[in-house]
Amino acid sequence: MSALHHGGRLRQAVAEFGIDRSRWLDLSTGVSPWTYPLEPIALEQWNRLPEEEDGLERVARRYYDCQSLLPVAGSQAAIQALPLVLKTMTELPQEPVVALPRVGYKEHQKAWLRAGWRAELYDNEPDSALLAQVQALVVINPNNPTGHRVPSMRLMQWHRQLAEQEGTLLVDEAFADVDPKDSISHWCPQPNLVVLRSIGKFFGLAGIRAGFVLAEQELLMALTDLLGPWTVAGPSREACRQALADRAWQQSQRARLERAALRLAAMLSSLPGTLSGTPLFQTLICDHAEQWHRQLCQQGILVRLTDEKDGLRIGLPSSAEQWQRLQEALLTLN
Length: 334
Hints:
13 helices; pyridoxal phosphate binding; Aspartate Aminotransferase, domain 2; four-stranded antiparallel beta sheet; CobD; threonine-phosphate decarboxylase activity; PyrdxlP-dep_Trfase_small; 2 domains
């Protein structure tokens, strides 16, 4: 599988459309436009190697309600490494099989294929016949870009079925922080269960490249051996610690994102197509996705064209000016 494209490729858009970077409205990433207001980070954090005894793991265990976790350089680092780790930890067929969502974050599929797994794809949710055939199941909950959610009890039913056949359930909860009712983080650690969490999306801190793996200690130790030491930089660890500890800001952020998501959904509802999403983005599946993507870019508005090129994933504007600009641009689509 060749290099994948993601949201946030603003420099490429600047070069292609000849519009100055300062004039772009980037709604392509699904990252909150409101960033956690960090306190100043001590200068020594930039000078010293990262240390684990800095309070990060303690506040993360409380935030995720899980006592066994590992900070990593964004959930992307774990996505790339876990298929290899699982092959070394368990007895598997010569060509193990993983079930993956047909529509979803494609870095998952790329990583499993590269590690020598065979992929079986499912739409929205796997059926019991598929589960009986696989050694691993990947669920993105809520899904990016469809927004499809799987109830937590159904996830745990799948986990029990997989565990009986020594299979593993991996749930990517990168977009779960706004409405965590379907999160299964609190069910970790359990055998054959792995949950990935992201700091970048909800906290608006994508640039620090930090996330967490929630799993049993044996798996975390194997993952640590593969990733090596100092996977998260000291300043990033401090930024995470501050953000995860601030319950008042988290509550305010959830309310703000939910209001903005409702406003965006209402704005997009007049366009032809099928609308779905999460409190961090809305996805419009439509017949003219490629054409509309280009028309928006020509006006300096960058949204995410889905991998299937049949939809647009649109993030949240953050100011009155941005809302007005998006609304006016949508009226020009044809």
